[in-house]
Amino acid sequence: MSCVRKELQQTIEEKLIENILLELDEDNTDSNDEQEEEQEEISEFFMLSLLALNEVRYLEPRIYNIAKSQHWYNNILPSYDDGRFKKIMRMFPESFKELVKLLNIHPIFQSNHITQQAPVELQLAVFLRRLGSKESIFSICSRYGIAEGTVILYCKRIMKAIISNKAKFIKWPTDERSREFVHAGFEAIGGIEDIIGAIDGTYFILQNAPQKEKYLYFTRKKRYALHYQGIVDHRGIFISYDIGWPGSVHDAKVYHNSYFYANRSTLIKGNDFLIGDSAYPLSPFLIKPFSKPNENQAEFNRIFSSHRIVVEHSFGRIKNRFAGIGDITVKKISTAINMIDCSIILHNFLELHNDAWEDYENNDDDSNEDNEDNNFDNVSDENLKRAGEAKRNWIMRKLFML
C-alpha cells in the first residue's frame, strides 16, 4: 500500500472516530445557514470517506494502535463541553474515562492476535450508542463505518466486561454502618424509620416477539416484554434486582422467586423492611399501603408513597438515559437481559460518581403495578400477612404518635 493511501486511511479513521461525537442538536434554534452548509459538507465528506475506506479495507486489515487511542483521548475528548458529551455518550467525559479504566483491564480486551483490537474507548462508544439511543444496528454501522458483525462483537465484549463488575456496584447494605445510612436516608424523606429498600417492578419492551414461547412474554398491555424487579435505597441506587421473567408473570410470582425472597433471612436484620405497592404480599419484612384506608391510614399512605417513589424515579432515569432498552430489538432474549443488566450496573456506577440523569419525566407507562389483591394459598403466607398488618399498624402509630 502506498504512503499516500496509508495517510488517507489514517485520516479517514481519525474522522470516523471523531464522528462519535459529531451530532447536531436537532432542537438547536440558534443554527444558521452557514452552519447548515458546513454540516452538509461534513456529511458529504463523511460518506465519501466511508466509500474510500471500505475500498482500503479490502486491501489491508484495519490496525488500531496506542497512538490512535491517545489521539482520541488527547484531541477529541477535550474538544466537547461536558453537556454535549453527556448528551451523546449519556455520561460526562470524566465518567467515561473512569469507565474505560475499569473495563480496560478485563481479559477480553487483552488480545494476542497480530491484528490489535480497536481501542476500548471506541468499542465502549459504539456500545453506548447502542444502549443510549433507539438507532438500529444498521444506522450505527453507517455512523462508524463498521460492519454489523463488528458492532455486535464490540457490544458483546463491553457487556461481558461490565457484567463482570456487577458485584462491585450492586450491593445489599448488610453491615451496621450501611444499614444506618439507608435508614437515615429514607427517614429524612418522610419520617418512617427502618426502611432498608423500596421494591417495584417494571417492563422492558421487546420490539420483536421471542422465538420460543412468545405468548409468555405478551403483557396485559398487549406488548412483548421482559419483567424486571428492582430494589433501591433512598438515593435510587439498586441494591438487588431480578431480570429475565416473561412479561406476563405477576409481580408476586417474581417476588417469591427472587434473590431477595430466597435470602430474606440473611438480608433482613433487626426491624428492617422493604416498602412496595399493592401488588406485593404484606409481611413483616415488606410493608405496603392500606387498601380502603380510613383518615389516618390515608395520611399514612401519602407519606408512605413519598418514600416508595424513589424506585419509580430510578426506573425513569435508567429508561431515559439508556433509551435503547426502552424498545429492545434483538434476536436472543439473553442479549436483551445482558443489555438491561449493563444499564443497571452503569446506572449505579454513574450515580455513585455523581453523574446523575435528571432529564426525565416520571411517567413510566411500562410499570406493571397491579392493584389486585393477592390470594396466597399456603398458611405461612397468611401468617406473614397478619404479622405484616401488625407491624404496619405499629409503624403508623409510631409515625403519628397515636
List key phrases describing it.
alpha/beta; 6-stranded mixed sheet; elongated; hydrolase; DDE Tnp4 domain-containing protein; nuclease activity; hydrolase activity
How would you describe the shape?
elongated
**What helical percentage do the residues reach?**
40-55%
- Encode the helix/strand succession as letters: HHHHHHHHHHEEEHHHEEHEHH
Total strands: the figure is 6
Give the strand content: 5-15%
Contiguous low-pLDDT stretches (5 residues minimum) are: 23-31, 36-70, 369-379
- The count of helical stretches stands at 16
CA radius of gyration? 25 Å
Q: What would you say about this model in short?
A:
Belongs to the HARBI1 family. Its cofactor is a divalent metal cation. The chain is of the alpha/beta class and 402 residues long.
